[in-house]
Structures are given as C-alpha cells and as structure tokens.
Amino acid sequence: MATETMQVNMLSAEDLLKNWQGHRRLTRKTIEAFPEDKLFAFSVGGMRPFSEMAIEFIKMAVPIVDGVATGKWVEFGNSGPKLETKAEILRVWDAQTAELDEKFWKIPPHRFSAVDKAFGQWEMSGLAMIQYAIDNEIHHRGQGYVYLRALGIEPPHFWERD
Questions:
Q1: Which pTM was predicted?
Q2: Contacts of 121 (CB under 8 A, 6+ apart)
Q3: Residue 96: which CATH number?
Q4: What is the DSSP annotation of 90-143?
Q5: What pLDDT, in 10s, does the model give residues 144-158?
C-alpha cells in the first residue's frame, strides 16, 4: 500500500509574528498587573521574581530575531540596561515590540529553516528558535499567573491577546 504524504503550510511568517506579538501583549498585561514591589521581590517555591523572567524575555526577543535573520548570534543575556522599575521594564518592552515589528520582516525566508547553534547553546532552525522564545514566555507567564493568584490578584485572561 502506498503512503501518500502531503505538505501543509499552516503558518505564514505574518501569522507567526502576530502570534508572538499577541503573547507579548498578554505578558505585558501580566507585568502591569503586579504591584511594583511584588514584581521584583515576590516568588513562590524558590522560583525567580517575575521581573527576572520578564527581563529574560527582553534579553531574548530581539537578539533571536537578529540571529535568525543573520546567522550571527550575540552572547545571550549580557546586553541591555539594568531594569529596576516596572515602568522601565514596560518602556523597554514597548520599544522592543516596535523593534520586533520592524526587524522580523528582515528575516530572509530561507533562514526560518536554517539550523544554527543559537547563542552557542541551542541547535535548531530559525522557526524552532522563535517558537522556543514564544514557549519560554508562555511557560514563565504561567508562573507569573501563579504569583498573581497567590497575591490575591486576578491575572489577565490567557486568551485575551489584544
């Protein structure tokens, strides 16, 4: 019996960016929901404060797009200003959102399937690396939701990405 294979292109680059930016909007709402002092100090079960997770997303997003676009990967996590207030995190977050919208379109189509060793750590295709950034953000945002609930704060609805 012959097996028929079919290639289905389910996600365009535009759809990928829209999905990522939707998650970033939701994460921004999550950052906003934290009281200033709790954003930087509260944790549960020995996990990091949510501010550290948000800063991790910031340190990854634009460098990932740059790396996927060019194949050149800067050392992960050693760049950018020290962010010490919620307002500073949100300011950089918003600037980076605009930067992602601009830089994403500079990724040549073949670079989505090209395999690199991103940041000298993760060997995967450009598409997989972008998906890693999205998945990492979703995972840690879930931790943020636990923190908010422990603080008696209702987190944003996970499906509201507008």
A1: 0.89
A2: 76
A3: 1.20.120.450
A4: HHHHHHHHHHHHHHGGGS-GGGGT-EEEETTTEEEEHHHHHHHHHHHHHHHHHH
A5: 999 999 999 999 998
